[in-house]
Amino acid sequence: MPNKGTLAANSARLLAAAGFSFAPARERLFSADPIRSAEILYLRARDIPAMIAGGYVDAGITGRDLVADSGHELRELLPLGFGRSVVRFAVPPGTDEDPRTWHGKRIATALTTLTRRHLAKLGVRARVVPMSGAVEVAVHAGIADAVADVVDSGRTLAAHGLRAVGAPLIVSESVLVAVPHRAGSVRLRNLADRLAERLPVGDTVFVR
Q1: Do the bridges between strand 163-172 and strand 38-41 make them parallel or antiparallel, or are there none, so unpaired?
Q2: Rounded mean pLDDT of 160-179?
Q3: What is d(CA 67, CA 9) in angstroms, rounded to the nearest whole number?
Q4: Which helix (H) or strand (E) holds 195?
Q5: What kind and span of H or E run contains 16?
Q6: Phi and psi for 75 in degrees, rounded to 5?
Q7: Cα–Cα distance measured from residue 150 to residue 171, given in angstroms and rounded to the nearest whole number
Q8: Is 191 helix (H, G, I), strand (E, B) or coil?
C-alpha cells in the first residue's frame, strides 16, 4: 500500500475495515498480520507497479495513472473509488489548444511514459521533459511549452497562468492491481471481494 498521502490514508482505512491488522506506516515500512497470513509493505505509490511486476508483492493499491505510466502490464482487480484524478495537457494563453499541432513542442510532466504514449496516439512528435514535481512552473521557467499533469478544479493551473486543453490522457482513481497470470488466484480474488464489501471508504479528489 502507499506509504503517504491521500492514497495511503484511504488505503489504510479500507484495509482496516476489511479486517486487516497492521502497524502505522510511520513506525516501520512493513507490517505482518498472522491472522490473515498477510504482510503489508508501505511503498511509494509510484514504486508499487514495479514491485508487483517484479514478483516482490502479490498485489498493490496505487493510482491507475501510475500503473499506466509504469509501462508494466498489470491487471486491475478492483477500482477503489478514492484518489480520483484526471491527467490533462495545460498551456498558457496564446498557445494552440489542439495538442495534435504540437510538433516540436516541449511537454513537461512527471508522467513521461503515459505522455509519450498519448502523444504517439495523436501522431505528435514532441519532446517530453521529465519533472518529478512542480510541473506547473515549467512553462513560466522556460523549461517547456506545455505541461501534462493532474487536473481537477484548475485553480493551481490558473495560478500559474495555464488552462487545461484537449481530452484527458487518463481518468484515474485508486486501484487494486496484480500481474495478469496471478490475478485469478483464489487468494487475490478473495482479497478483492473482501475489499469490495467495504467500499466506499472515501471520495477524495486530488485538487490542483
Answers
A1: unpaired
A2: 96
A3: 19
A4: helix 186-196
A5: helix 5-17
A6: -115, 135
A7: 9
A8: helix
Give pLDDT tens digits for 104-159: 999 999 999 999 999 999 999 999 999 998 899 999 999 999 999 998 767 889 99
Strand 75-79 and strand 30-33: the pairing is: unpaired
User: pLDDT band for position 207 (50/70/90)?
Assistant: very low
* pTM for the model: 0.91
C-alpha to C-alpha distance for 191 and 183, rounded to whole angstroms:
11
Q: Which residue's C-alpha cell is 482505512?
A: 13
Cβ within 8 Å of residue 13, ≥6 positions away: 201, 202
**How many other CB atoms are found less than 10 A from the CB of residue 140?**
12
Centre a 10 Å sphere on the Cβ of residue 141 and count the other Cβ atoms it contains. 9
- Whether 61 and 178 have beta carbons less than 8 Å apart is answered as no
Map grid coordinates 488466484 to a residue: 185
Contact (CB, 8 A) for 176 and 107: no
CA dihedral 68, 138, 163, 107 (to 10 degrees): -50
